[in-house]
């Protein structure tokens, strides 16, 4: 009796199990897998969790519209835990084990550089949504964030022309992005006739909190009779004590404006913004931009995240643009094959959220408008200046001696017929995908 | 039990070394990556110390020209047709409702030149971002929370909501203009402080016109300070415009001033064609430079002491738990973090009384961190006495647990902690040297905490028992000291002090789950450098490390300064493993 019962039970269990496996296989065949490679723990979690949620929201919306190529999208979320080598490991998992069609992920250039060889080796597609220092163009990566010429250079132009700034403090956190960006900016400023003695460069460690002497130096530097501005590539939460110290030492935005490249709505949402009012930030998108697309996006984001206080920011917009371009490219190519998608995506256009068009260029960067905003008391930005039309992103800076002759063109038109990410126009040689 | 201290010191050397090498490793990685970057990047150019800009706008030649021309325009405008003041407000209203900043600029000029008391109110409200206009009816209103007042007649509007209004947005240029305007309008304010502030604001870009205004007012000015500032302003204007004799006199008058724009004007005169003038200007500048340099040194010392006091505050709790008890408590940083979070919660609970929140937070943070400390001691550390390595691992685990707890319960993001109003701003000694209040209070607070702790250890019975147990546990027990209870209380005391330090740190740095990690290495460094088991050592070590760091920072950069300090400490503990003030006698072990 009992044996029969057990048998019966195990049989049922088996059948159910088998059925489940079959359905699992069936559903796996029907979906297109999309990788999400953003840190959900560690220091970068603060910023990256939002982007993971953005991709999940986009996938949900796309599935409501019927998916892509008649198949549903399925997100595969990996947590690289703000650990750069782990990024490469997780990327390999996504490509080899999960066989994702495309990956949306990474934040900071270190993490991107860490996964880059993996994507090139296994021929995957990565959409990188954050501003970066340029000097790179890979066949397998699409850079939907800003390059220096779509963020830093226009911001400096604004300061120079509209605010008539004559002396420059380039302050940054000590890592690759600020170092390279400042190198480009320094070269750019010098090309505009700014003298060596009118440029002060300063680097601080991650999470620096004792800003007294640096702010005091800036104050001295700024009180020599010429209009001074700070161009800040200070990263993450080190910004808060920096602005606080500026306020305490009585430097207001009218005296010495600070234009930041890494301070957005998300970073401002957690802090007391009073000492920051009037300081500037340069981005390609602000939550405060009045545009129908933007309003709809903010609304759907707040509904999806179930929190009316959550803000949107620039890397989120870049993620949306990247996602929309990928969906279009897959539909155009009729396949998720990386090579076909890569060919199809170049030249595609999608509306951005500031009333313009984002176009994927042959160098895998996109066109972006540049906006300068002043920080308001409510943690939002008030746009005070913007470029007339979108600026095409430039992979290799025109202001560095070593890279001004280098171009990237993955269609091969400009690079002698062969697609190349690093083509030297004087020697007419393609030296691989990376510069050095 | 004394061997514990000995062991602990040895392990600490390893910790400091490891920390050092991790810093080195990080920096060398990019150093290789960016080796082609100019050498200048690591050294901040040492600029001649200069004037303070607190409350004074920075002068800039180009700006000056701009405001000059603006003022000239508006002056001529107003002399042509002086509109009745009602008209001024009507025109200003129509201009302010436009989106263009140029139009708003015109409106602000009109308001400034109206010389109307109400214009000052308009400008002040606009500066605060509380000036709104009705979207349809295009009238200006002041919005304070939910109270909306029509600007024209000060009538409180009941049947309307904020949604019907749009803010009059301003940018930096307008803000500067408004500030100068308010200064001009409040030159005749009855309050001498306000007058002084206004004059100082005007000194930033003095023009012949504004000097004329000052000259008129100076005759009737009774307050000495204000009068002096006004005369300085007049002299500064004469520097550029007067005859040779007047100019020479003006150089003399200005040479005592530390004001930034005085100096930039003087350095313009250095290249004057007239030899007498250029010589006088150079002499005056030299005189100023010596003073500036002196105040520069004072400033560095202040910065160093303030950084040092932060180090002392973070380390002093550890000086008790590690120094006296010999427990390597890796969760010390998290106890600091708990104190900072207590401040945050107190501020959330009493949002209207931010100014008093710290007085509530300090005792509360002491209790919270103290209780957590006692719990840790009773449940974990008690079982591990005499096994420093296991203690290290266990407390490291606890630190991770506490961090994750905060992440899950409160938020993984940093939380905002506001500064009370009495802690913001700076105490201006003169226009070069200004000491920020938050740093000043923290130095005082650090000394206070140290004094209190010192008193407890020296003069209370708990202190006596703690010292007895730490020197010879068995003997103390034989004398009737309940050593287990003393251990718990001592650990609680050290942890509580860490919590109090957290309150102070919450005013300076970000409050987030990682707050503690940022301070743990520094704390151990201070305690080891000062000499384990010695409170004085902690104080001296903390303050001197702070000063050393700040002295080196201007020429070595923040990153390198930190590395150099670590190298210095490594060399120091190689030479003197027991720190600055080693314990003497039997307690010292071996």
Short description, anyone?
Chain A is of the alpha/beta class.
Write the layout of secondary structure elements.
The complex is a heterodimer of chains A (436) and B (590).
Chain A: H1 2-30, E1 31-37, H2 45-64, E2 72-78, H3 84-96, E3 102-105, H4 109-122, E4 126-128, E5 141-143, H5 152-161, E6 167-173, H6 176-191, E7 199-204, H7 212-222, E8 228-233, H8 239-248, E9 258-260, H9 265-268, E10 280-283, H10 292-305, H11 314-333, H12 338-345, E11 349-351, E12 357-359, E13 367-368, E14 371-375, E15 381-386, E16 391-392, E17 406-409, E18 420-424, E19 429-430
Chain B: H1 3-33, H2 61-80, H3 85-96, H4 101-114, H5 117-128, E1 131-134, E2 140-144, E3 147-150, E4 155-157, E5 165-167, H6 172-185, H7 192-203, H8 208-220, H9 224-241, H10 244-254, H11 260-269, H12 275-324, H13 332-349, H14 354-379, H15 388-409, E6 426-428, E7 434-436, H16 437-459, H17 461-471, H18 473-478, H19 483-506, H20 515-530, H21 535-575
Antiparallel strand pairs in B: 1-2, 1-5, 2-3, 3-4, 6-7
Helix pairs in contact in B: 1-20, 1-21, 3-4, 4-5, 4-6, 5-6, 6-7, 7-9, 8-9, 9-10, 10-12, 11-12, 12-16, 12-19, 12-20, 12-21, 13-14, 13-19, 13-20, 14-19, 16-17, 17-19, 20-21
Description:
By secondary structure, chain A is α/β, with parallel strands linked by helices. Chain A has a domain at 152-260: Response regulator (Rossmann fold, 3-Layer(aba) Sandwich). Chain A has helices at residues 2-30, 45-64, 84-96, 109-122, 152-161, 176-191, 212-222, 239-248, 265-268, 292-305, 314-333, 338-345; strands at residues 31-37, 72-78, 102-105, 126-128, 141-143, 167-173, 199-204, 228-233, 258-260, 280-283, 349-351, 357-359, 367-368, 371-375, 381-386, 391-392, 406-409, 420-424, 429-430. In chain A, the strands form 5 sheets. A 7-stranded mixed sheet of chain A has the order 7-6-8-9-10-14-15, with helices on both faces. Chain A has a 5-stranded parallel sheet with strand order 2-1-3-4-5, sandwiched between helices. Chain A has a 3-stranded antiparallel sheet with strand order 17-18-19, with no helix packed on it. In chain A, α3 (84-96) packs parallel to α4 (109-122). Chain A is globular and about 90 Å long. Chain A starts with a helix and ends in a 6-residue tail after the last strand. Residues 1-8 and 26-81 of chain B have low confidence and may be disordered. Chain B is globular and about 90 Å long. In chain B, α12 packs across α20 (515-530) and α12 (275-324) crosses α21 (535-575). Chain B is mainly α. Chain B contains 21 helices and 7 strands. Chain B has a domain at 3-19 and 294-422 and 432-583. Chains A and B meet through α2, α6, β7, α7 and α8 of A and α1, α2, α6, α11 and α12 of B. Chain B: GO terms for molecular function: transmembrane transporter activity. Chain B: It holds the Pfam family BPD_transp_2. Chain B: This is Urea ABC transporter, permease protein UrtB.
